[in-house]
Automatic annotation (TrEMBL):
Residues 145-393 form the Glycosyl transferase CAP10 domain. It comes from Cucurbita maxima (Pumpkin). Keywords: Membrane, Transmembrane, Transmembrane helix. The keyword Transmembrane helix applies. This is O-glucosyltransferase rumi homolog isoform X2. The keyword Transmembrane helix applies. The chain crosses the membrane at residues 21-46.
Length: 473
């Protein structure tokens, strides 16, 4: 008599009644194996999970599923260590934090993963509101992972913590967060409010803007774009911008530029029909120039595939420090804007492949390294490293208010309400933050050397060009 062959050899999988698996046991095992296999395919992206399997809002964050959990943070994250260097040796005391109160708009307190705010004064427009909202979204993105801390935030344009006022060994500079800084100040740079929307001028949250600009880039091939340098903005906020308008195309001069003044009051009345960011990727070259300080326009300009003509800045934000001249943008001399812009356009039109590559690499840096997932990672690492320096236990002041999304959305109106709803993080991030590289001054020095070398090369090219023009060559 023949013996039926065993399907499974493992004793733990056999039926309790005999030495063979029952039909039910076999089907359960096959079904379990199928689910495991399907889960693996969904995880690695071979199969898209049904929408009802995802947490609410997960469809908005699918791109995050493709990031390895051990991914290294982008280059600009290294500057977190440099921004916190003034406090590395002595740490940060409660007195030092309170020392920043005289200019701060509000204090942020995070205790047990909950976000509280003690407000001191209103900011320009709704900068303070959307900065608070952004920090609350970080707490929703990484629930339970934010460290306890207290920090002061100033929503003004220019940095105020002057290095020269805190140069001695006994100096205790106040740690003050803001949107930009410069080489003469110690203010700690943080992502600006517009990443969650800028209702006053109808600029959508960054996630949506990136999608729109990506589509706008496809409309006009690079070599079919207008071969001039384009700028549109408010020229009245700083003399440097008024100086830029002298370079405009007229009947008597041609600097290869097309420059336009932006009247935001008029745009508001006409429904912002002429200010869609995705409609402005139609020129080969786009100009970035600071306003009263660093300008929010920077990331929108650099997201187009157009080569960014970057007028030498005084200020920096958190991400520009990871980008290099001749790789991600073309540097423009701020003291001779017109001739510098003319040379840049001439060079680009004579070296179209190289100019196109610079524009596309700069745009790629923004689209890949400034995704909202990585903006949150920058915020997380900055706050985490900052919290390690605190020499006191954070506590909730009597006048502080806990930030809650439903209350903030309920109190908002119009575009502000819509942008809050659009930028609300509806589910937690599934992965750990990217890996922050350790502090290594050598790497930053090498980066600075590359940057200075590239700037010098362009300066020499430009000088030779105009010398030859004067000689009639």
């Amino acid at each position: 008599m023949k013996t039926r062959p065993q399907i499974f050899s493992s004793r733990s999988w056999r039926s309790s009644d005999n030495n063979h698996p029952t039909f039910r046991t076999t089907m359960v095992l096959i079904f379990s194996f199928f689910l495991l296999l399907l889960g693996l395919f969904v995880r690695i992206g071979w199969v898209k999970s049904p929408i009802y399997w995802r947490g609410k809002g997960m469809a908005e964050h699918r791109s995050n599923l493709y990031r390895p959990s051990n991914a290294t943070c982008p280059p600009h994250f290294r500057w977190i260590h440099e921004d916190l260097r003034p406090w590395r040796n002595k740490g940060i005391t409660k007195k030092m934090v309170e020392g920043a109160r005289k200019t701060a708009n509000f204090k942020v307190i995070i205790v047990d993963g909950r976000v509280y705010v003690e407000k001191y004064k209103d900011s320009i427009q709704t900068r303070d509101l959307f900065t608070m909202w952004g920090i609350l979204q970080l707490a929703r993105w990484y629930p339970g992972k934010l460290p306890d801390l207290e920090l002061m935030f100033d929503c003004g344009d220019r940095p105020v913590v002057r290095s020269k006022d805190f140069s001695g060994p006994l100096a205790d500079p106040p740690p003050l967060f803001r949107y930009c800084s410069d080489d003469s100040n110690l203010d700690i740079v943080f992502p600006d409010w517009s990443f969650w929307g800028w209702g006053e001028i109808n600029i959508k949250p960054w996630r949506k803007v990136l999608e729109d600009i990506k589509e706008g880039n496809k409309r006009t091939k690079w070599k079919e774009r207008v071969p001039f340098a384009y700028w549109k903005g408010n020229p009245h906020v700083d003399p440097s911008r008024r100086d830029l308008l002298k370079c405009n195309l007229t009947q008597h001069q041609n600097w290869d530029t097309l420059l336009y003044s932006q009247d935001w009051d008029k745009e508001s009345k006409e429904g912002y029909k002429q200010s869609n960011l995705e409609d402005q990727c139609t020129h080969r070259y786009k100009i970035y120039i600071e306003g009263w300080a660093w300008s929010v326009s920077e990331k929108y300009i650099m997201s187009c595939d157009s080569m960014t003509l970057y007028v030498k800045p005084r200020f920096f934000d958190f991400f520009i420090r990871g980008m290099l001249p001749l790789q991600h943008f073309w540097p423009i001399n701020d003291r001779s804007k017109c001739s510098s812009l003319k040379f840049a356009v001439e060079w680009g039109n004579n070296h179209t492949s190289q100019a196109q590559a610079i524009g596309e690499d700069g745009s790629k840096y923004l689209h890949e390294n400034l995704k909202m997932e990585l903006v949150y990672d920058y915020m997380f690492h900055l706050l985490n490293e900052y919290s390690k320096l605190l020499k006191f236990r954070p506590s909730i002041p009597a006048g502080a208010v806990e930030l809650r999304p439903e209350k903030m959305i309920g109190a908002a109106k119009g575009l502000h309400k819509k942008f809050m709803e659009d930028s609300l993080e509806k589910s937690r991030n599934e992965f750990e933050p990217c890996n922050l590289a350790p502090n290594d001054p050598t790497v930053l020095r090498e980066f600075q050397y590359k940057k200075l070398n590239a700037l010098k090369r362009v300066e020499n090219w430009e000088k030779d060009y105009w010398e030859n023009e004067r000689k009639g060559n």
